[in-house]
Amino acid sequence: MSPARLLLLLLLPLLSSFLLRPASAVLCHPEDKEVLLRIKSALNNPYLLASWNPDTDCCYWYCLKCDRKTHRVISLFFLASDLPGQFPSAISDLTYLQDLTLHKLSNFSGPIPESLTKLKYLNFLRLDWLNLTGPIPSFLGQLKNLTYLNLSFNKFTGGIPTSLSTIPGLGYVGLDRNQLTGKIPACLANLKGNNLYLILSHNGLSGELPATFAGVNFGRLDLSRNMLQGDASLLFGRSKSTSIVDISRNQFEFDLSKVEFNESLTSLDMNHNKIYGSIPKAMAGLELQFLNVSYNRLCGEIPVGGRLQSFDASVYIHNRCLCGAPLPSCK
After folding, report:
1. Contacting residues for 3 by C-beta, under 8 A, at least 6 apart
2. How far does CA 54 lie from the centroid of its chain?
3. How far is CA 56 from CA 77, 127, 219, in A?
C-alpha cells in the first residue's frame, strides 16, 4: 500500500467525524449571529469589530463570549474605544445575554433604550465612562436578575429611581460622577445583595440620609462630594460589618464622640463636613488603613494607640481644637 493511501485511511475517520458533526456543535446560534451583524452595522462597521466576519463562527469573534453548551451569546463587552453612535437597540435581541459591558467609549451617547428590559437573564450591567444622558430609567427595575449595576461617569440627570430597590439580588450600585439631584430614596435600604456596595459620589444629591439606612449593613458606602446634610452617625454601629465609608465633602453635622464603630471598618473618610465633638477612644482599637477627619469642627486630644498616630497630620488638620500626635501637643 502506498504511503499516500495509508495516510488517507488514517485520516478518514477524523474527516468523517468533522463533516458529520452537527452544525449546532460548531456554530453559534444563527439568530445571535444575525443580531450581532445588525449591531456591527448600526455602529458603522468599526475596526473594533473587524473580527465579526459573517463567514466565520461568531463564538470566536472578539468582544463576546458564548455559552459552551448552548452556544448562545451570554457576554458582550466593548472596551476603551472611540466607538461612535448611540446605544444599539439590537443588543436587546441577544435574549440570552447575562453580561453587558460598555466601558470608556468616549463618543458613545444617548439614553438607555427601554428595549433593554428584554434581557431577562442579564445579571451584570456596566455602562460607564460613556456620554449617556437623560434620567436613569426606572425600567431598569424590570431586570430582576441584576446583581451588578454600574452607570458611573456619564451625564445622567434627575433623581435615583426607586425601582432599583425592587431588584432582589442587586449588590453593587454605582451611580457616581453623574449629575443626579434630589434625595436618596429611603427604599434603597431594601437592597439585599451580598456585601452591598452603594457608590453615589460626585453628584448633586441633597437632603438628609434616609432613617432606613440605620438598618443597612453596607460593605462599602461612598456618598462623597454631594450636598447631603444632617446626621450621618446612623450609618455606623458596633454590630455592623461595613468596611469602607466615605461621606467626605458634604454638610453632615453630628457628634463624633457618641458614635460607635464596628471592628471591621478599615477606611473612613469624613473630611470637609461640620462634624463636632471629639475622636472616640475606641477608634484606637480599629485596624484602619485609611482615615481622614480634616476640615471639621472636632476638639480634644487624639486618642493614643492603634493606628491613629501612624497617619500624618494632614488627616486631622483644620479642626476647631484637635491636639496631640501627630498634631502639636495639647496645652
Report:
1. none
2. 34
3. 19, 28, 44
Q: Cβ distance 210 to 186 under 8 Å?
A: yes
pLDDT digits (tens, 9 = 90+) for 9-68: 444 444 333 333 444 455 789 999 999 999 999 999 999 999 999 999 999 999 999 999
Q: What is the pTM of this model?
A: 0.90
Spatial separation of the C-alpha atoms in residues 52 and 34, rounded to whole Å:
11
Helix, strand counts (H, E) of the chain: 2, 22
- Selection from 138, 155, 148, 271 nearest residue 202 by Cα: 155
C-alpha triplet 109, 139, 41: angle, nearest 5°: 40
Q: Which grid cell is 135?
A: 434620567
- Which residues neighbour 57 within 8 Å (Cβ) at sequence distance 6 or greater? 26, 27, 28
Q: Which residues, including other chains, have CB under 8 Å from residue 43's CB and lie 6 or more apart?
A: 49, 83, 84, 85, 88
Residue 140 and residue 115 in contact, taking contact as beta carbons nearer than 8 Å: no
